[in-house]
Amino acid sequence: MPTPSDAVRDAALSVPRTARQRARTEITREIIETARRHLAESGAAGLSLRAVARDLGMVSSAVYRYVPSRDDLLTALIIESYEHLGDAVARSEAQLRRGDLVGRWLAVCHAVRDWALANPHEYALLYGSPVPGYAAPQDTVPAGTRVPMLLMQLSADIIDAGMSPEPQRVPRAVHGSLVPLREGSGLPGSVPDDSIVRGIMAWTTLFGAVSLELFGQYGDGIADPRALFDHEMHRIAALLVAPDQ
Amino acid sequence: MPTPSDAVRDAALSVPRTARQRARTEITREIIETARRHLAESGAAGLSLRAVARDLGMVSSAVYRYVPSRDDLLTALIIESYEHLGDAVARSEAQLRRGDLVGRWLAVCHAVRDWALANPHEYALLYGSPVPGYAAPQDTVPAGTRVPMLLMQLSADIIDAGMSPEPQRVPRAVHGSLVPLREGSGLPGSVPDDSIVRGIMAWTTLFGAVSLELFGQYGDGIADPRALFDHEMHRIAALLVAPDQ
DNA sequence: CCTTGTCAAGAGCGCTGCTCTCGTCTCTTG
DNA sequence: CAAGAGACGAGAGCAGCGCTCTTGACAAGG
């Protein structure tokens, strides 16, 4: 008695057994794929289970054999999109010399921005207002932390290279605030609070800049958003690694 | 022959003449008010013209005499929300001594965050993913730039007080990128590019921090978001005004 | 072979945004 | 003051949505 939730999971793992099960995971994958195409074209708000079914030549009720609900389909798309973004960023960042810390930071920045510009609806789904009530369940967390994790690794590398800026004192309350993050991320205890704060602020500014641009907050006030973005991220770089090179 | 768009505008201006017109602006205002209540409770996605009509004891088609479409209603709510946020921020910032530049910056930060926490759905409507296709027309621009304008004024005051940090060199492309913003904001030409960039980055980090927290990107990694936010904004303060006090 | 379980299809419920018509009421003009 | 022009509320209706339930056909396993 396979439930639709199982189908979504199996489609990701893709470990079929009988012909029935193979067909099942196959169709589930097709549904998610078609939904991803619709998402890219019309955005999350315009994603319709019925339209997806129509595209696949099946009737809407049949889709519910494979997907429990529209929200679950969106959740699957969220996870998939996080992975796509994570892949794009990791791929871009991996091309640089490990010792080129500033270069790696800038690579992450532009990879995020480029991906967001290429996939605006997906980015909006990930980082915009949470659409379906407050859907985002625990399933999306591991995928969603990939980019922040990558930045944490970069922070650790900066420390190892002895390129950290003069550590700044961090208030007691902030130290306590970071405890669950330390535990959840497996960050070595030797990383000082100051570095974590710097990492968070860098990620915050990166996210903020991309979102402001993509969500139209600049209006037509900024002629060349890429130039501004690049400059901003260069300035943040000075926050992350000491300028003495 | 009053069009529904006129009704929405008149409700804001409220200059009635005949009894008919007074009733018209009155009802239009009630519609927007009820819609704002629904927005606060269920979010933009859950806002239904029919539900608003039901709440007002009228039939759905009657609402269309006053509001051209759901998107226009949302646009009206966007403008109203921008004004509310702008009021809250301006009120909070005005309470501080003009010379207390860091204090004014922090007041703006906490006013934005407090308002966002108190009105999450409104904040999501303003700064989250643009819901209705790409609605946000020109009407929302003046209201939407209130907070950034306030920060621009703060930047100008910092310069006037001679408290600006050592100006940093700004690339040619970035200078050009800022031209339309200079023209649109009536900023005095004496304000250097560097100050504008600092202002944009401050606004970017403020916006990013509030959005990351409100949209659930911190997960449960941050125990005391307010403490972290306050600390981050203090650090940004050092970017805006020279630490020599 | 035959039972069990999976499947696609269709009908249907309640909701949505939006349009059109119709009878009524009000304001304005002759 | 009366008559025509215009604004209005109510209702029916269309197409779409998410989702549920029933029905009949098919395949898998005992």
How much is the radius of gyration of chain A in Å?
Answer: 21 Å
Q: What is the element string of chain A, with H for helices and E for strands? A: HHHHHHHHHHHH
Give the helix tally of chain A. 12
The gross shape of chain A turns out to be elongated
Which range best describes the helical content of chain A: under 10%, 10-25%, 25-40%, 40-55%, 55-70% or over 70%? Answer: 55-70%
Name the biggest interface.
Answer: A-B, 56 and 56 residues
- Overall number of structural domains of chain A: 2
The CATH top-level class label of the largest domain in chain A? Mainly Alpha
Mean pLDDT of chain A: 91
For the largest beta-sheet of chain A, the strand count, sense and barrel status come to: none
Protein architecture, described:
The structure is a homodimer of 245-residue chains. Chain A has 245 residues and is mostly helical. In chain A, 69% of the residues lie in helices and 0% in strands. The first copy, chain A, folds into two domains: 4-68, no CATH class; 78-240, Tetracycline Repressor, domain 2 (Orthogonal Bundle). Chain A has helices at 4-13, 19-42, 49-55, 60-63, 70-94, 101-118, 120-127, 140-144, 146-160, 172-185, 193-214, 225-240. The termini of chain A are far apart. The structure holds a DNA duplex (30 and 30 nucleotides).
